[in-house]
Amino acid sequence: MELNYIHGSKITEEIKKGRELHEELESEVNVPIILMPKSYADFMYKVLYTSVRALEALQKNKISREIQVYGAINGFTTVGKIDQLQIKDEELQVWEDKTRSNDNVPSEPQMLSHKVQVMLYKKMVEDLRAKIYTLEMFRKKYGITSLRITEEFARQLDALRVEKPMQTVEAVAQLYFDLFARLPRLSATLHIRYMNQFTGKEIKLYRFDYDENEMQKELDYVLKYWKGERESMPVPKGESWKCNYCAFFGKECKVWWPQKGL
Ligand code: SF4
After folding, report:
1. Ligand 1 closest atom vs CA 250
2. Are the CB atoms for 234 and 2 separated by under 8 Å?
3. I want to staple 192 with a disulfide (CB 3.0 to 4.6 A). Which of 24, 174, 206, 251 is the partner?
4. Which residues make Cβ contacts (< 8 Å) with residue 170, sequence separation at least 6?
5. Number of Cβ atoms within 10 Å of the Cβ of 150
6. Model-level pTM?
7. Per-residue pLDDT tens for 46-77?
8. Nearest partner of 115 among 201, 214, 202, judged by Cα
9. Exposure pattern of 164-183 as b/e (b: 16+ CB <10 Å)?
10. What is the residue extent of each domain of the chain?
11. d(CA 236, CA 255)
């Protein structure tokens, strides 16, 4: 993460393949929305509008994909995109898809960061639903009230038949928060689906229960970095297989370079 900030993020083949599969899955469930933002305001509008449409689809079809979530955890701003929300037995389920380059079932350490990600999403959805993270907090954080979309972007919205009163970031943000508040209660069971990025085949569906203590423990550790209380760290030796898929391996980062005999 730190190297991404310092050197700029790099897109590896694995990331590209994973994105393609996510896009394919999204197009199976959501109606594609083509909007070309020209400014920060346009961009915020697009993100909120596509999530509004996804939340409306969730109400109607009981399943939807690629929903943006905003929040604040222990005072830190968080943002993420949930792969899938679905309603079953009147409960809202959070699903995350992870792609792999082979059919091997992931090990526990491989799953840990994914588990934390999904638990964080559950907490963020809960906070939006229960109005713990409010529209007012969102407005302040992202400067929503003063944002104006460009004329060109407004023409694109006209083409999509978005009514004029809905063509402001403020209006779409209001609707986004209203829709979250109407969601059913969240299921404590979370889902991670591992898929082969080449074949699309499901390798493993991992179900587990949200654990507040585990979540707090992980957050305390992670936030120490963001509070400046500790340095960033390389992956531990037992997880140095991750380096094989890292764009910085052997270049900006040589931590496990000698140990791998290179
Ligand atoms: S090469 Fe390995 S230790 Fe270095 S940044 Fe990448 S994953 Fe972390």
Report:
1. 1
2. no
3. 206
4. 139, 144, 145, 147
5. 14
6. 0.86
7. 999 999 999 999 999 999 999 999 999 988 99
8. 214
9. eeebbbebbbbbbbebbeeb
10. 10-231
11. 10
Centroid of ligand 1 to alpha carbon of 246 (angstroms): 6
If one residue of 243, 252, 254, 259 were mutated to test the ligand 1 pocket, choosing by the most ligand atoms within 8 A of its CB, it would be 243
Q: Provide the residue type at 123 as one letter.
A: K
C-beta separation of 179 from 55 below 8 A: yes
232 contacts: CB under 8 Å, gap ≥ 6: 1, 2, 225
Q: Which of 71, 65, 46, 61 is nearest to 177 (CA)?
A: 71
Question: Strand (E) positions, the chain?
Answer: 63-73, 76-88, 91-100, 189-196, 202-209
Q: Tell me 90's DSSP state.
A: T
Q: How far apart are CA 101 and CA 113, in angstroms?
A: 18
pLDDT tens-digit readout, 76-96: 999 999 999 999 999 999 999
Q: Whose CA is nearest to atom 8 of ligand 1?
A: 234
**Cα(133) to centroid(ligand 1), Å:** 34
Closest-CA residue to 166 (of 56, 246, 61, 19): 56
104 DSSP assignment: P
Q: Which long-range contacts (CB under 8 A, 24 or more apart) does 83-88 make?
A: 83/22, 83/25, 84/25, 84/29, 85/58, 85/125, 86/58, 86/62, 87/58, 87/62, 87/63, 87/184, 88/62, 88/187
170-197 confidence digits (pLDDT tens):
999 999 999 999 999 999 999 999 998 8
What's the confidence (pLDDT) of residue 259? 61
Q: Is 207 exposed, middle or buried (0-12, 13-18, 19+ CB in 10 A)?
A: exposed
**Eight-class DSSP state of 83:** E
